[in-house]
Amino acid sequence: MSGEDRYLQLADIAAEQWGMVTTAQARQAQVSAQQVARLTKRGVLNRMQHGVYRLAGVPEDPMAELKAAWLALEPQTTASERLRRPDPRGVISHRSAATLHRLGELDTDTHEFIVAKPRRSRHRDVRLHVRAKTDWDIVAGLPTTTVAVTIADLAATRTDGAQFAGVLRNALDYRLLSPDELAQLLRPYAHLYGAPLGDGKALLALLVQRMNRVEPTPPVDSVGLGQLSRVGDERGAEPVADATHARGSALGGPGHAAARRAAAEAARRAATRRTATAAADAARLQARMAALRHHEPLADGREVSLDE
């Protein structure tokens, strides 16, 4: 096999795993570590971390470092082979999984994985949790704990209450889990957050009061989660076209002062609408949880519906 053929084989491997290749995979393609170093020096490859490289020219990916860390857990095996196994030798979990599911806004300086057997990582930004088996889906091409497992893991590790409330808010808004399912899921961890032992409904009601007042971001497509119907869709799209147009007009021309005033007024109206919508959402969620906890009808006489 010629050198050019070996390099093309390397490109084929990278094409199936986000433009990345490991030195172990390169070795299997008969490309030595010295040749990988030369390709890096020539700008053909970019080093992601020890033993993991990315082809030059591959589009930027906000999850590139997480993907490189996952590849490094078993560098000799391609991503497609690992994903076909019941145990992909590393499942993205905890805060890293929440980020992939677009749940809350958590600090993710550390890449977290669940592995079946105890092992060590040479990377300080990798944290391994040992669990013989866990439920997972494929999200953004990576094996990731399911939404339910992710939320349970965050609760078990005592994630900050305000940040955890944002996670629950998104799970409810995306209708990934119902309030009743969340309450059941939170039962073992209620006392960790100051709620009565085993009272998941009390904990959920407590966290509902702390939920962020920001609009959720759309979830990424994932295998096994199905089509999602967001509560946020009921609010309608935010009418910001006028403000955007006014900002563009303010860049120049004789009417720039009037355009700036129009933009400021449009922004003020949009902020007022968002504040009112957030307050209504919070009140509705609190009323729903109070009715769920005490088995009472809502204020307008309707019975509680978890699918509203």
List the helices and strands and how they pair.
Layout: H1 3-15, E1 20-22, H2 23-28, H3 33-41, E2 45-49, E3 52-55, H4 64-73, H5 79-83, E4 91-92, H6 94-100, E5 111-115, E6 126-130, E7 136-139, E8 142-145, H7 147-156, H8 161-173, H9 179-186, H10 200-208, H11 241-249, H12 256-294
Parallel strand pairs: 5-6
Antiparallel strand pairs: 1-3, 2-3, 4-5, 7-8
Helix pairs in contact: 6-7, 7-8, 9-10, 10-12, 11-12
Poorly predicted parts: 212-217, 220-260, 288-308
Q: Report, as a whole number of angstroms, the end-to-end distance.
A: 63 Å
Largest sheet: 3 strands, antiparallel
Silhouette: elongated
Question: Numbering strands along the chain, what is their spatial order in the largest sheet?
Answer: 1-3-2
Class by alpha and beta content: mainly alpha
| Residues in helices, as a percent range | 40-55%
Tell me the series of helices and strands, N- to C-terminal: HEHHEEHHEHEEEEHHHHHH
- Share of residues in strands: 5-15%
Radius of gyration: 24 Å
Number of separate strands: 8
Total discrete domains? 3
DSSP summary: helix tally: 12
Mean pLDDT: 77
